[in-house]
Design a protein that fits this description.
With about 675 residues, the protein is of the alpha+beta class. It has 22 helices and 24 strands. Helices cover about 40% and strands about 25% of the residues. The longest helix is centred in the middle third of the chain and has 25 residues.
Length: about 675
Amino acid sequence: MTLDLSRFHQTFFDESFEGLDTMEAALLRLDPAAVDAETINTIFRAAHSIKGGSGTFGFTAVASFTHLLETLLDQMRSGKRVVTAENVDLLLKSSDAVRELLHAAKDAREVNVALIAEHQRALETTLATDGSASAVQVSAAPEALVEVAGGWSIRFLPQASLFRSGNEPIRILRELATLGPLTAEPVLDAQLKLVDSNPEDAHLGWQLQLAAPVNEAVVREVFSWVEDECTLVIEPLRAPDTKPTKPQLTVIEGGKGREAPEERRVSHDRRVSDRRSEAPAASGNAGGGSIRVPTEKIDLLINLVGELVITQAMLAQQANGLDPTVCEKLLAGLGQLDRNTRQLQESVMSIRMLPMDFVFSRFPRLVHDLASKLGKQIRLDTIGADTELDKSVIEKIADPLTHLVRNSLDHGIETPEDRIAAGKPAEGSITLKASHRGGNIVIEIIDDGRGLNRAKILAKARSNGLDVSDAMSDSEVNQLIFAPGFSTAEVVTDVSGRGVGMDVVKKNILALNGQVDLASKPGQGTHITIRLPLTLAILDGMSIGVGNEVFIVPLASVVESMQAQNDDVKTVGGTGRVVRVRNEMVPLMALHDLVQLPATTQREHNLFILIESEGRKLALEVDELLGQQQVVVKSLESNYRRVPYMSGATILGDGRVALILDAGELVRRTAPSLAA
């Protein structure tokens, strides 16, 4: 029967792209002046795994190119080739070529031949030169380089997943045999159950003896691409006191296996019973690890839990009218259901939470490449990379963050010459910081560059026809850079300066119910702060009543709620109204008029909530404040259609549908706009 390996392709590609990310991160922290052996070994293992997997699945172009990459790395880790900044750049570019080959194989499309040929020539040219002169010595761990005269005893127990992925452990044994004489005794994997076992789980491991004077690092490297899918013990080979009797002994020679003479065999069944006691040790890491689950399944689970939360809220609403003395057990059960539902909701939501490192990890390479291109010296620092955020938010914030970092690189950080002339160190710095504050995540992009030029921004705004004045605060002037088509760059480059992007950045952040603020000091740098909800599936909101309807206002947009005096409300322009909030006049809009509901007799109460978005405020007149609550967000467009001024909907405990107000759209359409 021929094994269909195509069903394992997705796993191979996922692991290969993860390996490339690991390789890239290690290359970026590789210092040619003080080369660390473990860093080079990490890079080598990633390349070796990709080469081995691509060879197994028949992606020969990937395997062939990665072999060149692996050869160069092998020369570096053995000290035969100097580790230079040029070689690190070559390896980074070569990893780009491997990524292109993998994408082409995954998408079944034509590869970028010119790109691959260019990087292949560069690798071949480098390999053809002698790079050993004044080579930097790799600071390897001494014990890893010790050669053992007698050889090595190796216990190799593959996990079932290694076999199911289509890998062939015999290939590893054959590669090991190239180092010297190798004998192999098969042993039963301790995970196998003799009764009612799954035939797919019935596999063997090996007790190996390698009679070769090589160091442990060389031996361990043979297993590097399967080290996460096996139990591996490598020990110096000790000379036996007596001649052992080895069952089913196999001698590996020249890449082929042959059985030992018949008289050296023993009962296989007896060996099984003798080794049952080894089960705990052999399967020490079998219960750990992780599984890959399609995002669609997680989304479905979250949606179902959301429905469960709504149902539980409905039951709680109905239970409010029950007599506690008569329905004591029922109410206790509902209370337990409420606690369990909340715990389940939190647990399911945590499945989608990913560390910010998933976004931050892309920036070291970006900063490295653009700094070289722009002739700048820039250090990137990341803080709080382990701070967790919902996967859907992470995916949507990645591009805005990338644009902001590119802007700091191009517009913010000066050239080394300009920095020295300004009394600064030649090397500039960009800091990415993530932290939890309340129910939000705060992401900060901080640079120590030239900062924003107020006069230049105002001049550009006037030339673009924006209504601005010299009396505007610094905060208002800074917000102008987010206007469409706004750029103060004197030279248009392929990095930035075309007047597109910053408005899209702000639009994307607002679409996530987030906010973006910008502070800057001339000559000292710029500080951008982004506030985002931890998840888009659940919203902390304020319930407000208008007529007989209930609406939800995102709590992050609410500044305060107030009841104004009649003298504080003024009419301007015949139709527009404003309300005095302390010493500030704020536009006032009645939610009745906005959603076209009949007016009530309560309008003279002047009850309103003050909301803020994009640096502008709006007073929203309502009938009553119902309280704060956490709601499950449902998409209006997916389930109904687009509704003006509304960003979504939720289902209340009594079964009614409540619309969620879009604070950003409300402010943009009803409050004075800076871009008007």
